[in-house]
Amino acid sequence: MPTDRIESSMRLKETTAARASDPVPVVSVVVPTCGRPRLLERCLDALAHQQSAPGLFEIIVVDDRPSAGTEAVFRAKAVDVIRAGNHMQYIASPGPHGPAAARNRGWRSARSEIVAFTDDDTVPDSLWLANGLRALDDSLGAVCGRIVMPIPQVPTDYERDASGLERAEFVTANCFCRKAVLERVGGFDERFKLAWREDSDLQFRILETGARIGHADDAVVVHPVRPGRWGISLQQQKKVMFDALLFKNHPRLYRTRIRSSARWDYYAIVAAMLGAMASGFYGSPSLTLTLLGLWAALTARFCMQRLRGTTHTVSHVAEMIVTSALIPPLAVFWRLAGMLKFRVGFA
């Protein structure tokens, strides 16, 4: 590392390191980040302007892909936070990687008895911390705030799907947990390598200890939908693999709170497609045409469901047609991959 980088890092540690004489903050805010310095800057700016008394909070940024750009954003925002009487800490994570592991590294470094979680692509309201802390009374082990995801009046399928986060029961983009509860359940399950279902897993483990989880509708975090490239829904199907892990960990709660049954339409589409291929190979034209017709009808039904209430631009309609044909086999593939990886029967 060049001498100037070493000196800069040393100055950063001296500026942000907590001394034994420093008062313990009321809440530690953990923000995992991974290669998104511009989004992180927006989030930290919102956190720096929380309406609170000096010394209320510390911010712990866990860099899951350590970079000079992320560290530079941290240094710039640390000046404002420290000037207001609060504290910041930067942790360069060498691994294991993933949002679950990054959050674990963050809360285990927290000095407070209460840990608040948000993400680098959110914009917390100026009263987020104050309202969330007020809602976390002595009877609760955790509190989940409200997520707001602004989308166009006529959204794309991707935007509408992403906005479903607003209706989730428990989201780590906006939650407050007692550190003692996190210690009791062991924090996040680091086998969840992607940002999917790791928050539900934590929620279920907290509930299984008998602790109660409350809600704070006035603890608001705005979560703008990030731009998605054409066909992004195909990439997202890999997340389905972690449904199998969540089901393995909490079969009853998964069936009552996430999904009570399998996606029969996906399995029917894949079965019709494979059946048509097999019958075509063995030379049964009438059966092949019948199965192809069934596949086309079920795929068209799925496509129309996704188009209902969304934009009908030429590009979006084309995207829905192509991805609706590819999503069912991809989803079934990743579901089977999850079953094999985590050794669980799951449909």
Q: How many structural units, i.e. domains? A: 2
- Poorly predicted runs are 1-15
CATH topology of the largest domain: Spore Coat Polysaccharide Biosynthesis Protein SpsA, Chain A
**N- to C-terminal separation?**
50 Å
* Shape by Cα distribution: elongated
Determine the CATH superfamily of the largest domain.
Spore Coat Polysaccharide Biosynthesis Protein SpsA, Chain A
Instruction: Tell me the fraction of residues in β-strands, as a range.
Output: 5-15%
Mean pLDDT: 93
In which order are the strands of the major sheet placed? 3-2-1-4-7-6-8-5
State the order of secondary-structure elements, H for helix, E for strand: HEHEHEHEEHEHEHHEHHHHHH
Q: Main sheet, how many strands, which sense, barrel?
A: 8 strands, mixed
Rg, rounded, reads 23 Å
**Tally of strands:** 8
| CATH architectural category of the largest domain | Alpha-Beta Complex
Secondary-structure-derived class: alpha/beta
Question: What's the level 1 CATH class of the largest domain?
Answer: Alpha Beta
Give the helix level as a range of percent: 40-55%
| Number of DSSP helical runs | 14
